[in-house]
Amino acid sequence: MDEKCILDPQRDCLGLQKANMLEKQMSEWREASRNTHKELFNRMRELEKAEAARNEQYDNIMEKLDRLISWQEAEQAKPKKRWEAIVDKSVWAVLAAVIAFVLARIGL
């Protein structure tokens, strides 16, 4: 760094000082850029992990929702089956009562 100016050897070379300063700045900027990229990639990695976890939760929710809908449809179908069974038995009971009444009238 004790380089002297070619034109005036009694003075320090300002161009060399400026070049050294710029080289130091470039090195600092490179390091800052490297750190920024590292932080950016780490953030992207974390976002991808969070998205994967969210997608897994979504899949689990959808699976549970499908099971819930199937269960609900089955439960809604049960009362209809019971009602149909009650109606069917009632019809048979009425028919049996009518037959018994007719048989009683004719004396059998």
Give the structural class. Answer: mainly alpha
Number of strands: 0
Low-confidence regions? none
Strand fraction band? under 5%
Share of helical residues:
over 70%
Which assembly state applies to the chains in this document?
A: single chain
The H/E string reads H
What integer value in Å does the Rg equal? 45 Å
Question: With helices defined by DSSP (H or I, 4 residues minimum), what is the helix count?
Answer: 1
Overall, the morphology is rod-shaped
Largest sheet: none
Chain-averaged pLDDT: 86
Report how far apart the termini are.
135 Å
Keywords: Coiled coil, Membrane, Transmembrane, Transmembrane helix
Transmembrane segments: 90-107
Coiled coil: 30-64
Provide keyphrases for this structure.
single chain, rod-shaped, transmembrane helix, 108 residues
Would you kindly provide a written description of the structure presented here, covering whatever features stand out?
- This protein has 108 residues and is mainly alpha-helical.
- Helices cover 86% and strands 0% of the residues.
- The protein contains one helix and no strands.
Summarize the SSE layout with pairings.
Layout (H helix, E strand, L loop, with lengths): L13 H93 L2
Give a concise summary.
The protein is mainly α.
